[in-house]
Each structure stands twice: as structure tokens, then as C-alpha cells.
Amino acid sequence: MGTEPVIKEDTNIYSILRDDIVKLRLKPGMFFNIKDICRLYDVGRSPGREALLQLEQEDLITVLPHRGSIVSKLDLDRIDNERFVHRSIEENVLRDFIGMFSPSVILRMENCILEQKEQYRAKDIRRFFDADEEFHALFFSEIFRDYCLSVIERECSNYKRIRLLALMADENFMKNSIEEHESMIRAVSTRNLDKLMFWSSLHTDRYKAQERWLLKRFPDLFTQSDKESEGMRKSPADLTSDFLLSIRSRGL
User: Which keywords fit this entry according to its UniProt record (predicted)?
Assistant: First the structure.
């Protein structure tokens, strides 16, 4: 969001604003109001309010009555629950996948890894993350579990945010992700469920192990107390800057 987006009338403002929050273009904890949303995204107050209501229901924003809203900070308890949901669904999908997949899916997985390697070299964290998501989505689509994937998409947005933050904070996460995906492909090629589950679990556990480190490094992005929003002030420039790129450019 280095420049103001051009929004078409038929664009779903909810989807765009949600993507800006999940992809960390908007900083966790930043303050804004409905006027900011209407101005920046060029939408009316009614669709703007509807979008904010949906985002509040997903715990991606917190509405402050008569004051405005804040992008919800990262809550480790919430993230732990979302990770549990994500892991529980994916593990069951992997069990079905290993006995049902078509060999052609392996080529698509390898293409995802090639894309990850390209984006790793380009240092494009978001496109790397998208390729990571596409890799895992193949397990679901191959056995027609698209609804299960949609549940993860809907319910695990905060888990996505901390994964993206981890990728930004330490590029070793990107290298490890590529290596783990390659190991998962080898397990798929031999239809070895135990190894597939092992590498999938390691992939998930690596993020959990770094959460406290991320909390220590970026304390202002995490929920600290029930009264954390008190005294917050609006920063007019926040909505037009890309948070993820800004902290990366400062080498934080």
C-alpha cells in the first residue's frame, strides 16, 4: 500500500480490507475510522461499515464505540486455537490424500516449490507466502476438500498473520519452508504417511517455537492487556503505508 489503491465500484471492500490486514499491509494495533476507509478505498459509508462488521466478527478489527476501530493485535491464545484448527483439519486431509492422490499432483507441488525459490531470491515475502499457501491447498483440492480449506481460510487469519511476520523477521523460515516442502514431496512420492505427517508437523511447530521470540522483538504488535487501546491516537499516514515493507526496510 505504498500508493493509494484504485477501487472499482463493484469491488468487495471487505475482501480488500481483509487482505490488507491479513497480509500485514495494515499494522496490528493501528487506529482508523470509517472516514479513513471511505476516503482511501473510495467506498460509501454503508459498504464500509458492513466490511468492518464482518472483520470484527473474525476478530481482525476491534471497534471502539464513538471513537473508531483498531486493527486487532496478535493474540497468542487466539493464534494457538487457530493453529489447532488448522492442524487438526490438515492432518485428516493428509491421511485421506496419501491413499487417493493422482501422481500428476506431484508436478504441481514441484511447481509451487519452484515459485517459492524464485520469490525467495526476489525477497518477495508475500508472493513466497502465496506459493506456500498454494502448496498446502493442493492436498485439499486433490481429494475434493475445498470446503475444509475454506474453513481454514475463514477461521485462521491471525495464524496467517504471525506466519507472515515470522517469514519477514527471519529469512531462515523461507529456506526451512522450501526444504520441508521438498521432504513432504518425497514422502508423497513413496506414499509414506508417517513421514508426510512428520514433515507437516515440523512445518507447523517451527512457527510455534518462534512466537515468544516474535513477541519479544515486536511487543507493540501483540495483545498485552485489556486496556491496551486506551490513549491511542489516529495516525493519518498509517493507512497509506505498507507496514510489512516498512519494518523490513528499517531492518527490524
Answer: DNA-binding, Transcription, Transcription regulation
In a domain, 57, yes or no: yes
Phi and psi at residue 64, to the nearest 5° = -105, 110
Please tell me whether residues 90 and 194 are part of one structural domain: yes
Q: What is the pLDDT of residues 196-249, one digit of tens each?
A: 999 999 988 888 888 989 999 999 999 974 444 444 444 444 555 667 666 555
Interatomic CA distance for residues 59 and 71, integer angstroms: 9
The string of pLDDT tens digits covering residues 175-192 is 999 999 999 999 999 999
Residues 63 and 114 in one domain: no
- Residue 2 falls inside a structural domain: no
Q: Is pTM, for the whole model, over 0.70? A: yes
Written as nine digits, the cell of 27 is 499494522
Pair (193, 110) in one structural domain: yes
SS (H, E, C) 45-109: HHHHHHHHHHHHHCCCEEEECCCEEEECCECHHHHHHHHHHHHHHHHHHHHHHCCCCCCHHHHHH
| Residues of the domain holding 211 | 74-215
